Amino acid sequence: MNDDSSAAAALRKRLYWHSRRGMWELDLLLIPFLEQRYDDLDERDQTAYRILIDEEDQDLFAWLMRREWPEEPERRRIVKMIVEHAETTDNDHYRTL
């Protein structure tokens, strides 16, 4: 029997652990976004986030630090959402990650 809540919980755990990166700066951007915004995203943006976290840390760092933007429109859109969230939200309690 396939339990939807178990599948959702497993997906959430996977997303959380894939959002934990080798760089503290990325953790401070991705984890709060996942915890505070992901559930409210439409399916297209949730898919874009899931694809984004499979990228290499150095690419994510360049994009999320606004040094450059991804060329692909869907990826650029989710990166801008994450950056905007970080700039407009008080995430001090995540500094101990």
TrEMBL record:
Gene3D superfamilies linked to this entry: Flavinator of succinate dehydrogenase
Protein name listed in UniProt: FAD assembly factor SdhE
UniProt keyword annotation of Zinc-finger present: no
Keywords: Chaperone, Cytoplasm
Entries under InterPro entries matching the protein: SDH, SDH_sf, SdhE_FAD_assembly_factor
Coiled coil spans: none
Species annotation: Halomonas organivorans
GO cellular component annotations of the record: cytoplasm
GO biological process: succinate metabolic process
Subcellular compartments: Cytoplasm
Family classification: Belongs to the SdhE FAD assembly factor family.
